[in-house]
Amino acid sequence: MTQFLEISGLCARIDADGQEKEILRGVDLTIPPGEVHAIMGPNGCGKSTLSYVLAGREEYEVTAGSVQFHGQDLLAMEPEERAAAGLFLAFQSPIELPGVNNANFLRTAVNAVRRARGQEELDAVAFLKAAREAAKSLSMAPDMLKRNVNVGFSGGEKKRNEVLQMTLLQPSFAILDETDSGLDVDALRIVAEGVNRMRSPEFSALVITHHKRLLDYLKPDRIHVMAKGRIIHSGGPELAEQIDTEGYTRFLAEAA
Amino acid sequence: MPAVTETREAVEKLGQSSYKWGFETEIDMDLAPKGLNEDTIRLISARKEEPEWLLEWRLSAYRAWLTMAEPKWAKVSYPPIDYQDLHYYAAPKKKPGPKSLEEVDPELLRTYEKLGIPLHEQALLAGVELPEGEVARTPVAVDAVFDSVSVVTTFRKTLEEAGVIFCPISEAVKDHPELVRKYLGTVVPAGDNFYAALNSAVFTDGSFVYVPKGVRCPMELSTYFRINARNTGQFERTLIVVEDGAYVSYLEGCTAPMRDENQLHAAVVELVAMEDASIKYSTVQNWYPGDENGRGGIYNFVTKRGACRGARSKISWTQVETGSAITWKYPSCILQGEGSVGEFYSVAVTNNHQQADTGTKMIHIGRNTRSTIIAKTISAGQSDSTYRGLVRVLPKASGARNFTQCDSLLIGDQCGAHTVPYIENRNMAARIEHEATTSKISEDQLFYCRQRGLSEEDAVGLIVNGFCRDVLKELPMEFAVEAQKLLQISLEGSVG
Amino acid sequence: MNAITKNPKATLQSFEARFDTITDQTRKAALGALHRVGLPDRRVEEWKYTGLRFLTETPFAAPAQTYDAAQVQAELDRLGVTHGPAEALPRLVFVNGLYSAEFSRKPASAEVSFFAQTKSFGVQACPDRDPLTALNTTLAQDGVTLSVPENGDAGHVLLISIGQADAPVSFHPRHAVALAEGAKLSLTCIQAGQGRYLHNPVLEVSVAARAELQHVTVQAESDDAASLATLYAQVDEHGSYNSFVLGLGAALARHEVHATLAASHAQVHVNGAQRLRARQHGDLTSVITHAAPDCISRQTVRNVLDGQSRGVFQGKVLVERIAQKTDGYQMNQALLLSEQAEIDAKPELEIYADDVKCSHGATVGALDEDQMFYLRSRGVPYAEARQILIHAFLEEALALIPDETARALCSHIMAQRFPVSGEEA
C-alpha cells in the first residue's frame, strides 16, 4: 500500500554564489494519513530546505531520491499543482505582496485550488463569509482581510495569516516551518488551536520547530531529529522533552 | 530562473493577435490632399467655417513650426517622419458634427459598439424617462472623435441643464467663440514645442468643456478617439475650463486599426482650473502598438498641460499607457495659485518593440503649492520605457512640497527601464523628495503565490496589478476595470 | 558629441593662440573633435545645468615654468599637509600643472613617472565624447602616473595641485593611477591656489582584480578659478574603487566621474559633498556603468548651498544587459541655506538587465525647524545651532571616507573655509 507521504533518499543542493552546496543528504521520512510529525534539529541542518524542496522551490536541485504524495510523484509537479494536490507550506518568513489585497489574494488562491480539485468556485459572498469566520477563529482583526498581503503585518499577524490561508485552502498535508517563531504565548495558543482544528484522519502535518512549547499544544505522533541533511533519530512525543533538557549533542554524537 | 523564463516566453508569444481593437471601418472619407502648407491650413479652417482670428492663429503657429526642430532629448528613436506625406484632414463623408445619433453613419456607431463604447444605449437612456425609483448605471457623457472629426456627443441636454458645455471644439468655436478665444493657447502656446505648434496649425477637432462657477459636473465626461483612415495624422485639441469652485472628471480613451505603417498622433490638451476648482483627467491610451517585430503602430507625441490659476485649485492627471509604438508625453501642472495642487499618476507598459518616454512637469510658482508624482513603469519584450519628470520650484514658491515615487519593473532581459528625474529648486523653504526603484518580480513572491495554488501567469498578473495599485485606484471605476484588463492583455496574453 | 553650437571655433578663442604649435596625432585628433563641436552649451543634455562662459571671457595663457616658492609653502602649510598626521606622507606637488620636485617626496612602494616624459595619453579617456577631456588632451603638459605592483601596498599618497596666477593661465594635467592585482593605495588629491586660472585635469584610474583604491579629492581652489576635472575609473573582478570628492572652492567647478565596473564582484563608491557660498557654481556629475554581473555601486552626495550659489548633481547609473544581479544605490541630498541658492539634481537610472536591485533617492529642503528649535530651547544661539546642524549634515557624508588621515584633511580644509563656531569666514 502506498503511504500518504513517503520521502526516500532525498538529496538536494543549492547554487550559492557559484558554488554547489549539498544540503539534503538522503532524507528518509514517511508520514501516514492523520498523523502530525515534528522535525527538530540544530540551525542549518536542512529543515527549511526540506520544506522548500517539498513545496517545489526551483533554486534547489534534487540530485537523488523520490517523494511520493498520495501515490503521485511530487517532485515532478509544479508548485501550484502541489498546492492543488493538497500540500500547503506555512512559510517561516511569509512574503509581502505590495498592492495585492489580502482577501482578493485568498479568493484567487482558494478558487484556483478548488478549480484544480474539480470543486465549484466560491462566489464573493460565500468566500467572504468563510474568510471572516476563519479570521475570527484566529482572533485576527477584521481589517486584515482588507490590507495588502503581509505588508505592514507584525510577525505574529503574518503567522496567523498563514494559518488563515491554510484553513481556507484545506490541504491534506501542511508543513509548518517555524510557525511558532516570533509568537507570544497567547498567539502561539491561537495558532496551535487553528492547526488542531484541522486535525482529522485525512489531514497530516509536518511541524518544523526549535521549541517544545508548540509541540505541547500540537501533541505530535512522532518526532524526528535532523542533522547535516539527514534524519538521524526518530521517536515518540517524549523526545521533545529530552531535547528540551539535553539538547542535540547526544543525538549528534550517536550519529557520528 | 525558469519561472521567469516561462513568463518571458508567455510575453514573447504576444503578437498582434492580442490587439483586439485592430479592425478597420469602411467609410467614405473626405480627405485633404497630402502635404502641409498654408493652403492646407486654409482648407481646414474653411471646412470648419472658422473665424478669421483662428485662421490667423493657425497660420502663425505654422510659421513658428517651420523654424522649429523635432525634439531630440527623449530616449526614443524612429526613422525621420515625412510631414509632407500625410493627410492633415480626414472626415467621414457626411455632414460633420451631427446633432443626434440618427444623423450618424450606422457603420460608425457599430465601430464604437465594437470598441465597447455604448453611445447608443447611453444616449437613449438620456432621452428616456426612467420609471420612479429606478437608477440607471452611472451615466457617462461621451464625445466620440473619429479620425479628425467629432461624430457624436451624448448627454448634451442633461449637461446643458447643469450649465456645463461639452461639445466638439469645432462647434465651440462657433457657439462660444468668446470662451475659446479667451483660453485657447493660453496654457500651451501655439509655438510651445514642435508638435504643439504642428497641432495648433492643423488641429481639426477635439473636445471642449466649460464648467461654470460652483457647478459640480453631474457625470463623468468622456472622449473616445479613433484613428481609422490611412496616411493621416490625428491632431485633436482639447480645452477644459473649470471656473471657481467647480469640478469635472474627464476620461479619454483611444484605439486605432492595425497597420504596417506608422501613424502620427500629435494632440494638445489644455486645462484651466480657477479658484477652488478641480479637474480630474484620466487617460487609458491604447493606440495600436505595432506588431511583435515593431512594424506599424502609432507615434503618440502629445502635449498635455494644466494651469492651476486659482488659489487652492487642483489638477490631477491619471494615465494608463499601454499602446502606441512610441509615446512622448508629459502631462504637466503649472501651479500658480496659492495652495494649488498637482498630481500625476501613471502606469506605462511597454512590450515587444514599443518605446515610451513619459512623465510629467510640476512647476511650482505659488506659495504652498503641492505636487505628487507616482509613476509605475513596466517593460517587457524588447521595449524601452523611460520615466522623465521635472519638478521645478521657483523663488516665490515658499512652502512648496513635492513627493515623487517612480518604480520600474522589468520582465525579461531584452528590455530597458529608465528613470530620469530633473529636480530644480530655487526656494529654501521648499521640500522635495524623490524615490525610485528598479527591480523584477521577485522569485519569492512568485513562489509564494504558486504555493497557494495560483498559476504563474495569474501570479504575474496579480503582482503587476498590485505594483500598479496606487495608480489604478485613482481611476474612475469604469476605467479601472478596463485598465486592469488592459494590463493583463498587454503582458500576459496567454492567461486563461 | 553632436555639433549644436553654430560657431564651434568661437567657443575656443581663449585657447586658440596655443593650438598652432600642435603636431602630435592624438592631440590633433582631439583638437579636431573640439573644432567640430566646440565647448558645450546648455542645450547639450549633459551640460544642461552648467555653462562654460568662464572659459570664453578671457584668454588663458600657458603657465610659466617658474613659481613663487614662498607662496607654495604657505599654501601647503594652510592645507595642513606640512604638520600633523599628513606631514610624513609621501606627496607629489604640481604647481600650475607642472611637477615641482622641490616640494615633493616620492612614495617608496609605488612607481612614479611623469607625462612630461612619457607623453602617454592612457586608454580610457574619451576626447571624442567629452569636450573637457578633448581640451585636456590638446593642451596637456605634465602629470603623474602612479603604479602599484602586484599585491603591493603603497600606503597613503598625496597628490597636490597649487595654482598661481597673476594673469589668467590654464593648466591641463594628465594623471594616471594603476593598481596591479591585489595592490592597495590610498590617494588624496588636494587642489588649491590663488588668482584666476583654469585647472582642467584628467585622471585615469585602473584597479585590477582584488586591488583596492581609496581616493579622496578635496577641491579648494581659488575663488576666482575654474576647476573642471574628468576622472575615468575601471575596476576589475573583486576590485574596489572607493572615492569621495569634497567641493569647496572655485567660482566654477565640475567634477565628472566615469566609473566602469568591468568584471564581476567589483565595487565602486562615488561619494561626495559640496559646500558652496557667494556666487559659486559647483557641479558633481557621474556616470557609473555596470558592465558585468554581481557588482555593487554606492553613491551618497550631499550639498549645502548658501548665498547665491548653485549646486548641481547629475548622477547616472547605467546597468548593461549583461550586468545581472547588480546592486546599485544612489542618494542625493541638498540643504539650502539662503533664499537665492539653487540646487539642480538629475539622478538617473538607465537599466537593461532585469535581475537587478537599483534605487535612488533625492531630498531637497532647508534646515529642520524642529531640530533648530530643539537646540535653541537647550540654550544654543541661532547662528551656532545652524552651524552645528550644517556640520552634522556634512560630517555624516565625510564619515564615508575610510582613511582617517584623509578624513581629517577634509575636515581641516573645510573648517578653514567655514569655521565651525561663530560666523562664516
Automatic annotation (TrEMBL), chain A:
Listed SUPFAM superfamilies: P-loop containing nucleoside triphosphate hydrolases
Alphabetic keyword roster: ATP-binding, Nucleotide-binding
GO molecular function, one term: ATP binding
TM helices/strands, residue ranges: none
Pfam families tied to this protein: ABC_tran
Residues annotated as signal peptide: none
Domain ABC transporter, chain residue ranges per copy: 5-253
Protein family (similarity comment): Belongs to the ABC transporter superfamily. Ycf16 family.
Lineage: Bacteria, Pseudomonadati, Pseudomonadota, Alphaproteobacteria, Acetobacterales
SMART domains: AAA
Organism: Acetobacter cibinongensis
Protein name: ABC transporter ATP-binding protein
UniProtKB/TrEMBL annotation, chain B:
Location of the SUF system FeS cluster assembly SufBD core domain: 225-467
Domain SUF system FeS cluster assembly SufBD N-terminal positions: 161-217
GO biological process, one term: iron-sulfur cluster assembly
SUPFAM superfamilies referenced in this protein's UniProt entry, alphabetically: Stabilizer of iron transporter SufD (SSF101960)
Matching Pfam families: SUFBD_core (PF01458), SufBD_N (PF19295)
Entry's family note: Belongs to the iron-sulfur cluster assembly SufBD family.
Name of protein: Cysteine desulfurase
Originating organism: Acetobacter cibinongensis
TrEMBL record, chain C:
Lineage: superkingdom: Bacteria
Domain named SUF system FeS cluster assembly SufBD core: residues: 169-393
SUF system FeS cluster assembly SufBD N-terminal domain span: 20-151
GO biological process, one term: iron-sulfur cluster assembly
Signal peptide: none
Pfam entry (one): SufBD_N
Entry similarity comment: Belongs to the iron-sulfur cluster assembly SufBD family.
Protein's name in the database: Iron-sulfur (Fe-S) assembly protein SufD
Species in which this protein is naturally found: Acetobacter cibinongensis
